[in-house]
């Protein structure tokens, strides 16, 4: 049980995958070499560079990810032992927005338009 006066700390953050570790290391350099490019274009350039890396370099980034993941798993266990299972807040937020969004698929749009037409016929 947790004490009501104890503030719940933030859960540990998931580790970045190998590509994002690489991206973080080279982003500024690539951005400086490509002034005026959008972030998405810079990311595409970095992605191509990453794909061209020798296997041993990619393995180094994969190992960094595995090391980070091992640390994360330990921190996660400690956190969950103390506060309970980590809730995935992103899923919850997405579900909240679905309730307020208008239907997007064709079937739902068709049903809505048929309902609108039938209500206009009642006049």
Automatic annotation (TrEMBL):
InterPro entries: HMG_box_dom, HMGB
Basic residues biased stretches: 100-109
Domain HMG box: 12-80
DNA-binding region, residue range(s): 12-80
Biased composition (Acidic residues): 113-123
Gene Ontology CC: nucleus
Primary localization class, coarse: nucleus
Protein name (database record): HMG box domain-containing protein
Provenance organism: Paramecium sonneborni
Source lineage: Eukaryota, Sar, Alveolata, Ciliophora, Intramacronucleata
């Amino acid at each position: 049980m947790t004490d009501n006066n104890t503030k719940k700390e933030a859960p540990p953050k998931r580790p970045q995958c190998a590509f994002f570790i690489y991206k973080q290391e080279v982003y500024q350099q690539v951005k400086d070499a490509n002034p005026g490019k959008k972030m998405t274009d810079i990311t595409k350039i970095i992605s191509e560079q990453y794909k061209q890396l020798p296997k041993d370099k990619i393995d180094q980034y994969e190992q960094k990810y595995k090391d980070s993941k091992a640390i994360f798993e330990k921190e996660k266990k400690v956190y969950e032992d103390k506060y309970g299972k980590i809730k995935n807040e992103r899923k919850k937020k997405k579900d909240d927005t679905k309730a307020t969004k208008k239907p997007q698929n064709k079937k739902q749009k068709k049903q809505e338009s048929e309902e609108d037409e039938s209500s206009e016929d009642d006049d």
